[in-house]
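Q: Structure for this?
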Amino acid sequence: MTCNELLRLLAENEGLPAEALEHLRTCKTCRRLHDMRDQFANDAAMDSAATIDPRLEDRLIAGVLADLKPVRPVASARWYATVFLAIVLLAAGAAIGVLGMRGWETNAAPQRIYFVLALTAGILGCGFTLPRLMIPGERLRIAPRALAALSLAALIGGCLSYPLLQYAHFGRAVATCFAIGMAVAAPLGALSAIVLSRGYVLALGEAALLGGLLGGLTAFVVLFVFCPHLDMGHSLLAHGSVVLVSALIGPAVIAARERLFGPE
Amino acid sequence: MESRDQDQLAELLLSYQQGDSAAAAALIKSVSPRLARFCLRQGDAPQDLDDVLQEIWLRIHRARRTYRPGAPAEPWLFAVARYARLDVRRRRRRIHAREVPAEESQAEAAFVPAYTASRFLVESLATLPAAQREVLVLLKGCGMSLEEVARATSSTVGAVKQKAHRAYGALRRVLAAHSPEALR
């Protein structure tokens, strides 16, 4: 067994197999590391007798009791996931109902399949991760930034599958689709923020990232179904940029607020 | 933490949610020393514990409705506590960047440790990046499992393992550069 393999086993936080114990017998540095780890855990066990200054304890208790009243626990993460996904379905359905489905009819089968899969995965990922950010101590299945990066990469990859075309009204078409996209993404992002406020969000930046991403992905769904401009430039600049801007605007606002006013 | 202690903590949290003042007091008495140890091992000064613990309990009080029955109690408490602690540190940095302190505060230590870890151990931990040190403190200092640390740090089990692996690697390099006598 190598030292690196032993480090991996220590990181697993389980008991050590015979191979690892044999390595500890022969490697002085790894043995010292293992002893240090045990010492740290032993210190913690002995520290269990430590106390807080009684005056501080009284102040902490008084502070809590001054405002103590019964509260109702928040709903489950699954319930909030349902709420987020319902909002997406309603917003997308309403927008598509108004704008039409020319884009869907114009797209070829491979693009339809690809984008349906990519967008569904992204939206479901956001829908199930956002509630976990609302409730402290909930386990995350995927890191929010990884989800955002994967979603954006998948969409950019799909947009690159279109040909590069030039036409006279390129600028106007990009501006129109971008405006439509933001008109879908912005209210949805705001609604997400309202739902998020029902919980207690600790990682504000990451919640804002995913809330914005959810709005952006929904907007992309609407644009994909509605817009008949099947070219790389338009897809990236008009549709893809909506997702990017929506995702980044929330964290940017939070970072600016913290810079100006400090943390909460 | 033993499952029996987790169950007791969960019961206290639920009673606290329902407005039981005795449960609230018992929870504070039971959990505060653990939170204090966590903060000290993360590098907070003993004289700052007063402010940090007050902020932590203020946040726990505001967040109490988000504790769900049946969920592990300790990761919930530490998840709120670590963000409160980080915000206090960021606030202090902003204040210190703008103000000149009139005199050094000689505030009494709010926490009386029963046992002091070796200086080498403490100094070695201080060399680690904050995220790696936090994972080791929660895993080995607070006795949490990988799953519990992932919940407490709003992270995934894989990310926690990776940080722990890097932390042990960094500590190993420190040890390789020092003699065995430094451990005593």
